[in-house]
Amino acid sequence: MRMNILIAALALAAAGSACALDIQLPPETATYKPSELPGYQLVQRNCMTCHAAQYASSQPPASPRAYWEATVKKMKKPFGAQFADADVPAMVDYLVKTYGAERGAAATVAAAAKPAAAVAAPSTNGKDAKTLLAENGCMACHALAQRVIGPGFAEVAARYKGKDGSAAVAEHIRQGGSGKWGAVPMPPFSQLSEADAAVLAKYVLSR
């Protein structure tokens, strides 16, 4: 009897193995932008372990050096990335000059030449807050409740409790700034229309 049970169990196990799905994920083909900067090789070696290259390219393009430094240090502590402290300056230098605010004078001139009316024009795209948060990389620095690099949305909402802070928060989103919520400056998101910034401000203050 026991032998029959054992044979039946082995048969079921074999059948289960035969039905198992063989899922093949496509290989990661994206790479960080090549550069002569020393930090390029360090980022390739240290960051690709956990992140696809799109992580860097999806960050706010106006992100300053302090933003990238805080992001790199966050990966080391508390998240435990295994790279030397001595690598941080070169990695930050590469990231800010390749993906951030120091990408080059041409980008700066182009941004400065953009008509103010086009920047401030109300949006009619009808995007909701969660779409705007995702498109602009907001959750790289913020969370709903706890502080990450910048304040959690609940902290912002608490400061404006009992007040109409919508205009102030929307202005801060579009203009950026430093000192109000900590030492790390927030990059300006001037590409957002006033309407989109208002949508985000309303969402933040509703937490």
Total strands: 0
CATH architectural designation of the largest domain: Orthogonal Bundle
Number of helices: 11
Strand residue content: under 5%
Say what the CATH topology of the largest domain is: Cytochrome Bc1 Complex, Chain D, domain 2
What percent of the residues sit in helical stretches (DSSP H or I)?
40-55%
Straight-line N-to-C gap: 64 Å
Order of helices and strands: HHHHHHHHHHH
Contiguous low-pLDDT stretches (5 residues minimum) are 105-110, 115-124
The CATH superfamily of the largest domain is known as: Cytochrome c-like domain
CATH top level class name of the largest domain: Mainly Alpha
Broad structural category? mainly alpha
- Mean pLDDT across all amino acids: 77
Describe the structure.
- It is elongated and about 50 Å long.
- It has helices at residues 2-19, 39-47, 54-57, 65-76, 88-98, 105-113, 116-120, 129-135, 153-159, 166-175, 194-205.
- The longest helix has 18 residues, at 2-19.
- It has 207 residues and is mainly α.
